[in-house]
Amino acid sequence: MSTMMAASLTRIPLTAFVSGFSKPSLLRPTQNTMARFQMYANETRTATRRAAKRKSFKEIAMAPAGPGAFNVGKGLVAGGSVIGLGALCYYGLGMSSQLGALDKAVLWPEEVRQRIRDTYMYFGGSVAITAASAIAVSRNPRLMGLMMKNSWMAIGVTFATVIGAGMVCRSIPYQEGFGSKQLAWMAYSGIFGAVLAPMTLMGGPLLIRAAWYTAGVVGGLSTVAMCAPSEKFLNMGGPLAIGLGFVFASSIGSMFLPPTTALGAGLYSISVYGGLVLFGMFLLYDTQKIIKKAESHPPYAMQKFDPINACIGIYLDTINIFIRIAMILSGGGGKRK
Question: Which residue ranges traverse the bilayer (predicted)?
Fold first, then answer.
């Protein structure tokens, strides 16, 4: 567009001056000269407008990113935080007319209490194994180099390994004690830790701060889920699935488009900030799902209540929340240095 404008503006005065010197002034009225200047000026403005209208979608998408893309994401997280604090005060202070899971806990038999305790025990064990695995891999240069490969084959193998380990872990029937189910659970958590090992390059202080923030978010949302009516968040399955697809597509798109462009910054903001809000809502859903399963599972069923499968949902939610908080704290959410 600038080339077209420069060419037009350069040609106009040259044409006028050459015609003025080549012909006697008595043979060229002044009115015609003014009309020619006006005609050329109108043509220039028309060409400029046409060039502006011809701006392609690629030029718009690849334009430098402004602060608006990240500000929208920050506003979304701030709004979600306000709603979460409001829900915590509303349900925590007993202002709801319906009984929450915490109110019903006094009526639970010991078996239901034990199921919930076992679920959160395995959840804590998953987090500990993941952290230990990430630290161990980060101290092994060969494994660290393997985890940091950016080729499509390496990414595909990593995804396939994580998904396959999760499917194997879920498919094995649960038995009390230490058996194949527990081994598969430990392997699954360890593989996740290896995948997260490159995050150690962010630095220990930042990751510790992100872990504390994650603990606060998970603790607060778990309290909301336990104080709210027992099926308040169990109806969010459909919208959450749609949101997950949207965030996943944004995450894939941000792999191809740098966050310095307008479209890349928008996709990155949806993936980080939108994902943080989405997985916070998933945590509410999965927490009440654990309570519902623990209450409704028949005590003499052929297949026992599985605390390992029950904890995988909140474990994945916590990992995703931690990753996004660490990315925001590292400056990946718009505060680029």
Answer: 120-139, 151-171, 183-204, 210-228, 240-257, 263-285
| CA atoms of 241 and 150, how far apart (whole Å) | 28
DSSP code for 277:
H
User: pTM higher than 0.90 for the full model?
Assistant: no
Q: Do 10 and 75 reside in the same domain of the chain?
A: no
| Together in a domain, 22 and 148 | no
**Spatial contact of 12 and 38, defined as CB atoms under 8 Å apart:** no
Q: Which structural domain range is residue 85 located in?
A: 68-332
| Long-range Cβ contacts of 232-240 (<8 Å, 24+ apart) | 232/288, 233/281, 233/284, 233/285, 233/287, 233/288, 234/285, 234/288, 234/289, 234/292, 236/281, 236/284, 236/285, 237/285, 240/278, 240/281, 240/282, 240/285
For residues 295 and 112, the answer to whether their CB atoms sit within 8 Å is: yes
304 within 8 A of 115, measured Cβ to Cβ? no
Q: Tens digits of per-residue pLDDT, 91-111?
A: 555 555 566 666 666 677 788
Q: What is the pLDDT of residues 53-71, one digit of tens each?
A: 455 544 544 544 555 656 6
